[in-house]
UniProtKB/TrEMBL annotation:
GO cellular component, one term: chloroplast membrane
Location in the cell: Plastid, Chloroplast membrane
UniProt membrane topology term: Multi-pass membrane protein
Source lineage: Eukaryota, Viridiplantae, Streptophyta, Embryophyta, Tracheophyta
Membrane-spanning residues: 92-115, 127-150, 157-176, 182-206, 218-240, 246-267, 319-339, 359-380, 392-411, 417-437, 449-473, 479-500
Record's protein name: Anion transporter 4, chloroplastic isoform X1
Record-annotated Major facilitator superfamily (MFS) profile domain positions: 92-504
Transmembrane recorded as keyword: yes
Amino acid sequence: MNSPATLRCHSPISTFRKPNYSGRRLVCNVKLPSNCKFSSNHNCFKSFTANRSEFAAHQSIGYWRIGGASSNDAQSVEESFGEFITSERVKVVAMLGLSLALCNADRVVMSVAIVPLSLSHGWRQSFAGVVQSSFLWGYLISPIAGGTLVDYYGGKLVMAWGVALWSMATLLTPWAAEASLWALLAMRMLLGVAEGVALPCMNNMIARWFPPTERSRAVGLAMAGFQLGSAIGLTLSPILMSQGGLFGPFVIFGLSGFLWVLVWVSATSSTPEQSRQISIHELRYIQNKGQIRSVVEGKSKTSKGIPPFRRLLSKLPTWSIIVANAMHSWGFFVILSWMPIYFKTIYHVDLRQAAWFSAVPWSMMALTGYFAGVLSDMMIQRGISVTLTRKVMQSIGFFGPGFALIGLTMAPSPSMASAWLTLAVGLKAFSHCGFLVNLQEISPQYSGVLHGLSNTAGTFAAIIGTVGAGFFVELVGSFKGFLLLTAFMYFSAAVFWNIFSTGLRVNFDDST
């Protein structure tokens, strides 16, 4: 029933052996002599067949398209919603979402554990902020190096090592806390070093698996896992500590990470061409959407040497992403680290309630993040420019939280405070469809290192914000002034983004 795929041309060329894939014709869009045609009536006809693995092995020759030779093929390859949900690329992004959930759950355990640790060790609030920020000291080191490794080795390998290392650090944290303060700080730093590769890996994998018209929702799905990790960590940690002591949540989340690595290594691949599970229909869909071309072009321009940091930093669109990431991280880590203590000190709720009040907003952020991704993709599909779409998303993601934090400072009850905080964090998710997706658009070949640069700036801001909040509260006696300062910074960063950002490709290959 399945006939061999055929290649016909008007001039002698090398014989290519490619898979038949259920009888469909395999058309090669490689650079051939100008008189080479895919025709049905010429004597230099070649028949060729091969196994599936050879398809991926020959990707370096050029760009392959599965299907007939007509120009209407790209239009005929479409997917239903059901096919999208059950596709291999959604499985990949679901695994990324799980890894980011573990990433955030592992880091927020300390936000709850810091309360009993502070009581048992007699730490002041300012020193508690130093302990919490020790994670960020490690996180400061790895994003640039990690982003460069991701661009070169691919997201699968780097993410596997990252999750394995941060799971080990999580597992060993309670033993380190019993041993000495320096051991505790070292484990928190190792956690930060390993988690620094998570978001560059996510960005790299999505750039390779998803066409441009689906990237926003893919980022929304992955980041939904990230936010749910915060909610899971903040909600379960007090319960696990009440049952198993300080060791409980660290052991559970650490072992979960090792289980994730086993599934990730056996069930995913860095690119669609390397996947053994992907269907021919999905592969054809991704390729006809232009995804493979952009990735191969990006690889061809990426050398094994040091990235052009001077040229990357010479462009204002890069700085718009750096400023946006810095502000995003400032607000994110201040809220993540201090909200349980905020509800405990301002509204006098117990630790379990404090964790619950501060966990609800992250669940909302997961929902609004995916909604923002779908809305962003719809705007682009309906003809709105990528640049305008990113500006709109980023404006909602920064102006919204700024106004909501002002409302939070005036909330008369913990319920109203939780409502304002939920609004702030929920609207914050729109920025994922601003600066976070924009990395792939202005330079797909350097998306990893750009993410690393902006993450490093974000980590600096997060350290200053997390430690600064503790000292500010100790000096002034209230969180409210610090929240108002954060709101003003949100407004300023939104204005900077709207002036200097772009959704167009930026040329980083020359110094002009």
